[in-house]
Amino acid sequence: MSEHVHEHHHHAETPTPAAGSEPLVQLTDQAIERFRNVMQLEKVAPDHGVRLSVASGGCSGMSYSIGFENQARPDDTVLEQGGLKLFIDRESAPYLEGVTIDYVVGLHREGFKFVNPKAARTCGCGESFGV
């Protein structure tokens, strides 16, 4: 008597990102970890997100701003990376496109570093830029 074994293969449907659909902003693992630490230190609720924005000012004409908010605004772009929600307003989005946010610990300073491949001029601190 022969036995018939039926194997069921379940293929997980993994959506493949379309070419060129890079996230607007990318966070390094160090940045994600640091945001989490700051949120714990500041007693920010876990459901809050990180508000990323660009303001005029700073030594190269524009500067980045980081804050924590509990919900997105109507015209925000909302991203999620490493379980962190990122809120980016419409005015800031074009300036943040393609930016990588890193957390750097150095001899003279430590902090978030915005790496913007499109910035024409950046000042040494990595927090302001010119386009």
Verbal overview:
- With 131 residues, the chain is mainly beta.
- It has a single domain (25-130), classed as Sandwich (Hypothetical Protein Aq_1857, Chain: A).
- The chain has 2 helices and 9 strands; from the N terminus they run βαββββαββββ.
- Strands 4-5-2-3-9-8 form a 6-stranded mixed sheet. A 3-stranded mixed sheet has the order 1-6-7.
- β8 and β9 (128-130) form a beta hairpin.
- The longest helix is centred in the first third of the chain and has 13 residues, at 29-41.
- It is globular.
- It starts with 24 loop residues before the first strand and ends with a strand.
- The model is unreliable at 8-19 (pLDDT under 50).
Secondary-structure blueprint:
Layout lengths: L24 E3 L1 H13 L7 E8 L5 E8 L7 E5 L2 E5 L4 H4 L2 E7 L4 E6 L5 E2 L5 E3 L1
Number of helices: 2
Can you tell me the overall shape? globular
CATH architecture: Sandwich
Biggest sheet strand order reads 4-5-2-3-9-8
CATH level-four homologous superfamily name: HesB-like domain
Query: Which stretches of 5+ consecutive residues score pLDDT under 50?
Result: 8-19
What is the terminal-to-terminal distance? 77 Å
Q: Give the SSE string.
A: EHEEEEHEEEE
Q: How many strands? A: 9
The quaternary state of the protein chains shown equals: single chain
Largest sheet: 6 strands, mixed
Domain count, please report it: 1
CATH hierarchy, class: Mainly Beta
CATH fold topology: Hypothetical Protein Aq_1857, Chain: A
Query: How much helix, percentage-wise, in residues?
Result: 10-25%
Residue share in β-strands: 35-45%
Mean pLDDT: 81
Radius of gyration: 20 Å
Find the structural class using helix and strand composition: mainly beta
